[in-house]
Design goal:
One of its GO terms (molecular function) is glycosyltransferase activity. The chain is an alpha/beta fold. The chain has two domains: about 170 residues, Rossmann fold, CATH 3.40.50.2000; about 170 residues, 3-Layer(aba) Sandwich (Rossmann fold), CATH 3.40.50. It is built from 15 helices and 13 strands.
């Protein structure tokens, strides 16, 4: 039986960690023995404990946590996996790879972001991996342009499947957050960090409020910009219209009550929150950046606008707020797109093909 150790350092079970969960569940159904390593006392550890995999929750303290190397080596000696799959940037991408190399294992690294690295970093870092799984074609192009050998890169797109939950009605969602019953509700679902573009949407709010008097904005997520965004949300101009809702484990049942998902990110590997919104029939306005156009097809399941630009973002939101028929059609097309092109089975089989390529098809 093939045995794979997965290392995921995310604490809050955001998009990348959800992909690991989808992958582990699918691999288990195909007869693969999985071991997952994640941060101690984290939401990710709690959710991974529900999967058909052996869990090791350990201390993970980021890129400078050098003791992570012996911690992982001890686990590798105990578990004796056939292959090590690294899923995170914070620590495991380098330190985990070193541990795997010292143990003599084949190593797969999932690349989930589209930022460009320096040639020096690229030359060192990508020698550590036998294969790099890019979750979008856009990331694959970044890797190629950065000098990563094409023979190492495989494109396996992220996937999504709706959770079996009973969604809140429109009225129930508004009651949940204390919003007026007639509110037009838009949301960003993303970490509260600079590159997700929350500030661009806040810059557009004065015009949006003038054109859409019932508008209410929800920010779902946690991150380093919380206090800065809260200060802007509390300003006189935006008071009572912008709400920082934090990280919500029950997000799957909340999405269908939204009128629109907005994702003004400057950089994005693909955007699991975009797949999640489409799977729940929510139309999207997003930036034409990174791998986003692979998840949001302009005029199909959403509208793409130039990143960083306030006016086009506002124009797109206003246009969809005024056109219920088009907005609902985009949402319905999103459900079809996820079912047709972003199935979990395709993602799992793609990763499994990479493993078999390294270890031999008989494994």
């Amino acid at each position: 039986m093939l045995k794979v150790m997965h290392v995921e350092a995310g604490e809050n079970f955001y998009g990348g960690a959800r992909q690991v969960a989808f992958l582990i569940d699918g691999l288990a159904r195909r007869g693969v023995d999985n071991v997952v390593v994640c941060p101690r006392q984290s939401l990710t550890a709690r959710r991974m404990a529900e999967l058909p995999a052996k869990l090791h929750a350990i201390t993970m303290a980021g890129d400078l946590d050098l003791p992570l190397i012996p911690r992982l080596r001890r686990l590798l000696r105990v578990e004796q996996p056939d292959l090590l799959h690294l899923h995170s940037r914070r620590g495991p991408e380098i330190l985990g790879a070193i541990a795997g190399r010292l143990h003599g294992l084949p190593i797969v690294y999932s690349r989930r972001n589209d930022h460009r690295e320096s040639p020096l970093v690229t030359r060192f870092k990508y020698r550590l991996y036998d294969r790099v799984v890019a979750i979008s074609a856009a990331i694959g192009k970044v890797l190629e342009d950065s000098g990563v050998p094409p023979a190492k890169v495989r494109i396996v797109r992220s996937a999504f499947t709706p959770e079996p939950v009973t969604p809140l009605s429109r009225d129930a969602l508004r009651a949940e957050f204390g919003l007026p019953a007639d509110a037009f509700v838009i949301a960003i679902v993303a970490q509260l960090i600079r590159r997700k573009g929350h500030a661009v949407l806040l810059d557009a709010m004065p015009r949006l409020l003038a054109e859409i008097p019932t508008l209410q904005l929800l920010f779902f997520g946690k991150g380093s910009l919380h206090d800065e965004l809260q200060a802007r949300a509390s300003s006189t101009a935006l008071a009572g219209r912008v709400h920082l809702a934090g990280y919500r484990e029950d997000l799957p049942k909340l999405l269908e009550g939204l009128d629109l998902l907005v994702h003004p990110a400057f950089a994005e590997g693909l955007g699991v929150s975009l797949l999640q919104a489409s799977a729940n029939g929510v139309a999207i306005v997003a930036s034409d950046a990174g791998g986003i156009p692979e998840a949001v097809r302009d005029g199909v399941n959403g509208v793409l606008v130039p990143p960083h630009e306030v006016a086009p973002l506002a124009d797109a939101i206003i246009a969809l707020a005024r056109d219920d028929t088009r907005r609902h059609a985009l949402g319905a097309a999103g459900r079809r797109l996820i079912a047709d092109e972003f199935s979990v089975d395709a993602m799992v089989d793609g990763n499994l093909a990479v493993y078999r390529e390294l270890l031999g098809a008989d494994r």
